[in-house]
Protein: Aspartyl protease family protein
Organism: Senna tora
Amino acid sequence: MQVYAALREAFVKVMVSNKYSPAPGISILDTCFKGSIKGFVGVPEVQLVFQGGTALPLKGHNTLLEIENGITCLAIAGNPGNSPITIIGNYQQQTFDIAYDVSNSRIGFSAGGCE
């Protein structure tokens, strides 16, 4: 939860500085803003950095989800408590080709998949 809390805090800070008003959370998505995703500009890029230094840069279309008309939320949810498990969901993986090397415990990303 500590990593998510830091991400959430930094993301909210940038979005509020870009004049987006916070909105109440919806279900497990607790970081929401008033407005349609189509009108959002200045959405911060989020980078997932893995052990070994591989980074996955995520643009707004990978991090924001319009839940209902006029309410857009960060499409990443925190884990309750101190759970060490994090799931990179299919929303973050959109527009990337993902390669899993299970035997060597490695993962690779290539931009431009499934556009």
Observations:
- The longest helix spans residues 2-17.
- The first strand starts at residue 22 and ends at 23.
